[in-house]
Amino acid sequence: PQGSEEAKAFVNAFLKRSMPKKKDEAIQDILTRKAVVLEHYSKKRTKQKRKKTKGFTAKQRREMRLFEIEPEQQRYTIFLPLHELWKQYIKDLCHGLKPDAQPQMVQSKLLKADLHGAIVTVTKSKCPSYVGITGIILQEFKHVFKIITKEDKLKVVPKLNNVFSLEIDGFISYIYGSKFQLRASERSAKKFKLKGTIDL
Predict the structure, then answer these.
(1) Per-domain residue ranges for the chain?
(2) What is 72-187's CATH number, 2.30.30.210, 3.40.1740.10, 3.10.20.600, 3.40.50.720?
(3) Which of 69, 73, 118, 145 has the fewest other C-beta atoms within 10 Å?
(4) DSSP class per residue in 114-183
(5) What pLDDT digit, counting tens, does each position of 64-100 carry?
(6) Higher model confidence: residue 114 or residue 17?
(7) In 3D, which of 192, 162, 170 has the Cα closest to residue 90?
């Protein structure tokens, strides 16, 4: 136990250390009013940079065949439930696809929509062998669509120089592949401009 003088000296020393900018008179004035606010000097913490987890490179993905569909999985019937999910997704995206829906609004939504699961048909092409191919889009890359047909054949159809038709509940939309050469993730953020005429 300390005496009153020792306690007073301790308090004064403590306050001087805690409030180095204040003079002795100011500290005594604070003590008489019995309101002591200690100044706190926080040390600046250096923010630790978070290390980004490195994913696989494109070369590693190709070597591991991450995006390849096994031959036993290349069956049209397997992906029909995916198409039903896609139809529901588009209906929700376009607010139900009501008969009075404006075609331009539906078209603008489709331009940015995810097309995995959509049934498309090649209606025009500079290469006649592509015309008439119909199937479910399994994968979309920057330059090609991978489509599974009813004959259980996986077709790789380039976007360039091809026109695709997309039918949802009677609403038919046309995709000009030459103007559609983007990845699905990039397309969702792109602003498309309406143009009068589009050629293959």
Answers:
(1) 1-43, 72-187
(2) 2.30.30.210
(3) 73
(4) --TT-EEEEEEESSGGGTT-EEEEEEE-SSEEEEEETTS-EEEEESTTEEEEEEETTEEEEEEGGG--S-
(5) 877 788 888 889 999 999 999 999 998 888 877 777 7
(6) 114
(7) 170
